[in-house]
Specification:
Its main location: membrane. The protein contains 14 helices and 16 strands. It is α/β, with parallel strands linked by helices. Bound molecules: manganese (II) ion.
Length: 404
């Protein structure tokens, strides 16, 4: 006791106060932790209990009946995947919990920030869009969802207007923004972000299925640091048989010149040297782009996406470079898993030529952010000179002037 008193005397007092305050903070912090999703298995079974035999239940593959082959073939182009099968599968099907062992015992804070989910689409297939929304609503704790904003990027399909409004009216959290002209994915996301009310923005594609416990680990990372950008592991929904497939662990988002996004396995010796576990966070140079959570204020501080990027492509590079150059981090969170239908081609048209649009976007990103490394992008010395840049320092907006 006298030792403790001595500690509080003189210059030791400040130190002791800091120590005591840290202990109190730690205790409070621990009290805020709670067990998350321990009963995930039970929930999954309950979900499927209604229709255990339904096609595609549990993420199982489905095959097209012999007499429906022609119909399935002709409907493929509606979404560039098996639209016929998508329509057969329940919009609220169960999928297998593919998280690595240990995820369901992980704790998250009780005071996670809430999020606005932003899903942009143009002419998305009805059943696929519904399955995406249902998976968000049924596998996210309601108090963490501020709203689900569906941004209809001037779709041409009639069912995406009044019929969609009517269907979604039963879910008070779902809001639909019908854009009056085609914005392209990048500017459609900005339109969604402008009206979002949540502390965190979570961008998702409109042909996904969120897995059990997908949201909490993402929000936990962003809560730990407001400059963390958290991405789920993107799993595969087969475009052919609509089965839900898991992917290899320890994958990182990388790019190769000229700024092509890809996945790369972390080398085995690195995994062993760092004693990495399957549940460990993986830091990535770049993100795939479709699915991530980001603090809304931070997103605005970064200048969001460069609104001069057109339609789609390169925006994942742009946001990734900005995040790292402005003190942030991009992480893949292995305990968060979302299935995604990978397609060979975009079903919708690009207003201009697709290849040229993506090339132009990438050149724009290279010009603003790569400095001397842009020569690696062009693959030869000299720059096109068509674009002139003025890049302000971090936390500023990239400003552009276009010369003709
Ligand atoms: Mn997609």
């Amino acid at each position: 006791m006298s030792g403790l008193r001595r500690l509080f005397r003189g210059s030791g007092r400040a130190l002791a106060f800091v120590f005591a305050a840290s202990v109190v903070w730690l205790l409070l912090d621990m009290a805020a932790l709670r067990l998350s999703l321990g009963d995930a298995g039970g929930r999954l079974l309950k979900e499927a209990a209604d229709h255990p035999q339904a096609p595609g239940q549990f993420g199982h593959p489905v095959s097209v009946p012999a007499d429906k082959q022609e119909e399935a073939k002709s409907r493929w182009k509606e979404g560039n995947f098996n639209v016929y099968l998508s329509d057969l599968i329940p919009v609220d099907r169960a999928i297998v919990d593919t998280r690595p062992a240990g995820c369901s015992e992980q704790r998250v804070h009780d005071d996670l920030p809430n999020t606005s989910i932003i899903m942009c689409f143009v002419d998305e297939v009805w059943s696929t869009l519904l399955r995406s929304v249902h998976s968000v609503l049924s596998r996210s704790p309601p108090h963490l969802i501020e709203e689900v904003i569906l941004v209809d990027d001037f779709s041409t399909k009639k069912y995406l207007k009044e019929k969609l409004d009517k269907y979604m009216s039963r879910f008070p959290k779902v809001k639909i923004l019908h854009l009056k002209e085609r914005h392209g994915l990048i500017r459609a996301r900005l339109a969604g972000a402008e009206v979002a009310k949540g502390a965190i923005l979570t961008f998702l594609d409109s042909h996904v299925e969120c897995n059990v416990g997908w949201l909490e680990p993402l929000l936990e990372r962003v809560r730990l640091s407001r400059t963390k950008v958290a991405c789920p592991v993107i799993e595969v929904i087969s475009d052919k048989d609509m089965s839900y497939m898991t992917v290899d662990n320890f994958q990182r988002g990388i790019f190769t010149w000229p700024m092509n996004f890809g996945w790369r396995q972390i080398p085995q010796e690195i995994i062993e040297k760092n004693k990495m576990k399957e549940t460990d966070i993986i830091r990535c140079p770049v993100m795939a782009g479709g699915l991530f959570s980001i603090n809304k204020k931070y997103f605005f501080e970064l200048g969001m996406y460069d609104p001069g990027l057109d339609v789609w492509g390169g925006e994942n590079m742009e946001i990734s470079f900005k995040v790292w150059m402005c003190g942030g981090e991009i992480e893949i969170v292995p305990c968060s898993r979302v299935g995604h239908i990978f397609r060979n081609d975009n079903p919708y048209s690009f207003p201009k030529d697709r290849v040229r649009t993506v090339e132009r976007n990438l050149a724009r990103v290279a010009e603003v952010w790569l400095d001397e490394y842009k020569e690696l992008f062009y693959g030869h010395p000299g720059s096109p000179g068509a674009l002139q840049r003025t890049r302000s320092l971090c936390f500023g907006r990239a400003q552009w002037a276009e010369n003709t």
